[in-house]
Design goal:
Layout (H helix, E strand, L loop, with lengths): L4 E5 L6 H12 L8 E5 L5 H8 L4 E3 L18 H6 L4 E4 L2 H6 L4 H13 L3 E6 L3 H5 L3 H13 L10 E5 L13 H19 L1 H6 L2 E4 L4 H8 L6 E4 L6 H8 L3
This protein binds phosphoenolpyruvate (PEP).
The site of phosphoenolpyruvate has 13 residues, from β8.
Length: about 250
C-alpha cells in the first residue's frame, strides 16, 4: 500500500519564537489518520524544529537545497548540511522556486541527483500555469516537467521520491483544483510513470496534491484513488487546521 503523506510547507514564514510556538501547538494535536506528517520550516529554524520534534511522529524537512556538495555558492545550503542537522527529506521544484529563483527542469535534475546521492528523500513539485490549463496543454506540461527532471533515474530511485502535483493557479490563491481535476491529473501522472518504469514503480510512488488545500476540502480531495496526500502551504501555519487536514484521510 502507498504511503499517505501530509507535508506542511511553511515557506518564508515564522521567526525563531514563532516557530517554537507553532511546534508547541503541533505537539498538542491528536492524529487519528495513518498519514505520515512532515513540516518544512525555514533553514534558520530547521535544527530547532528537528530537536523539538525528534521523538514525535512529525518529520522535519527542508524547502530546498543546492546541487553542489560545498563551495563558492553564497547563500546556498547543501544536502550534507541538511543531513548534519537531522534533515533527510527535501522539497525540490516548488513553483515559487521555479518562478522567482529561475529553477529549471535541468537544474532540478541536478538537485534530484545530489539529494539521491546523499540518500535523501525528495518531494518533487511540478504543475501547470493557468494558461496551460485553459489551452488544454496541462498534461503535456506536467509530463515534460517529470520527464526532464526525473526520467534519467533508475527505477530503484523512485523508492525515495514523492511527487507533488501543484497547479500553479491553485497555490495561495484560494482556487482549488476540483477533486475530478486532481484525480484525472494524478491518474495521468501514474500512467506516465507506468509507461516509463512499469506498474511496480507507478503503484509505489505517492502523489500529493497541493494548491489551497484546507480543512473544508481535504477530505474530498484525499478520497480520490490516486491522491495520496497533500502539500499544504497557508493552512499548515495553523496547527488545528493542519491536523484537520492530516486527519482528513
Ligand atoms: C504550496 O505552496 O505548496 C501550497 C500548496 O500553498 P497553498 O496551500 O497556500 O496553496
Amino acid at each position: 500500500m502507498r504511503k499517505q503523506i501530509v507535508a506542511g510547507n511553511w515557506k518564508m514564514n515564522n521567526d525563531l519564537a514563532q516557530t517554537q510556538a507553532l511546534l508547541t501547538d503541533l505537539q498538542k494535536q491528536t492524529q487519528t489518520s495513518n498519514a505520515e506528517v512532515m513540516i518544512a520550516p525555514a533553514f534558520t529554524n530547521l535544527y530547532q524544529a528537528f530537536e523539538t520534534l525528534k521523538h514525535s511522529n512529525i518529520e522535519v524537512i527542508a524547502q530546498n537545497m543546492h546541487f553542489a556538495e560545498s563551495g563558492a555558492y553564497t547563500g546556498e545550503v547543501s544536502a550534507n548540511m541538511l543531513k548534519s542537522v537531522g534533515i533527510n527529506t527535501v522539497i525540490l521544484g516548488h513553483s515559487e522556486r521555479r518562478e522567482y529563483f529561475n529553477e529549471t527542469d535541468e537544474s532540478l535534475a541536478k538537485k534530484v541527483d545530489a539529494a539521491l546521492e546523499k540518500e535523501m528523500q525528495i518531494i518533487f513539485c511540478f504543475g501547470e500555469q493557468l494558461a496551460d490549463r485553459k489551452s488544454g496543454n496541462h498534461e503535456n506540461i506536467v509530463e515534460g516537467q517529470i520527464r526532464k527532471a526525473l526520467f534519467h533515474l533508475e527505477a530503484s530511485s523512485f523508492q525515495n521520491i514523492i511527487l507533488a502535483y501543484e497547479p500553479v493557479w491553485a497555490i495561495g490563491t484560494g482556487e482549488t483544483a476540483t477533486p475530478e481535476q486532481a484525480q484525472d491529473m494524478h491518474a495521468f501522472i501514474r500512467q506516465t510513470l507506468e509507461d516509463k518504469y512499469g506498474s511496480d514503480v507507478a503503484n509505489l510512488v505517492s502523489i500529493l496534491y497541493g494548491g489551497s488545500c484546507k480543512p473544508s476540502n481535504a477530505k474530498e480531495i484525499f478520497s480520490n484513488p490516486d491522491v495520496d496526500g497533500g502539500l499544504i502551504g497557508g493552512a499548515s501555519l495553523n496547527a488545528e487546521d493542519f491536523y484537520a487536514i492530516v486527519n482528513a484521510f
